[in-house]
Amino acid sequence: MRRYELMLVLRPDLADDKVQGALERTARAIAAGGGQIVKQAPWGRRRLAYPIDHHREGSYYVILFEAPATAISELERGLLISEEVLRHLVTRVERPVRAARGRDAEADLDVAPPSDDEEPDDDVELIDESETEAAPAAID
Length: 140
Description:
Distance between the termini: 23 Å
Largest sheet: 4 strands, antiparallel
CATH topology of the domain at 2-95: Alpha-Beta Plaits
Structural class: alpha+beta
Number of strands: 4
Oligomer: single chain
Order of helices and strands: EHEEHEH
Strand order of the largest sheet: 2-3-1-4
Radius of gyration: 17 Å
CATH class of the domain at 2-95: Alpha Beta
């Protein structure tokens, strides 16, 4: 399965239960396509660059998930007809390549080493937050 990042911009005038409903429908669509959600992070309300459907702001959400490539078209079809979603964008996230034998993996990944109080997990993928300037608090 491949890893994807979904950016959702929801209408700012939605009630909390409608927002949760839209996020749950998205999660069900990902699961129905054979995928699983890795992380979900709200970015909060932000000003849009231009008005969309007479809205100047939008509620942003980022969902990191793994799914087969065939499931993406069905997910996007559901997002396109949803009234709660102003805009969405699905991008493929490239996983870092493991270093070759005998070389330092941290030098290749350009990632800070874990602190002493954290135990490194082999299952956890480290995300370099410096890749995006738009939202540094996207994935905590």
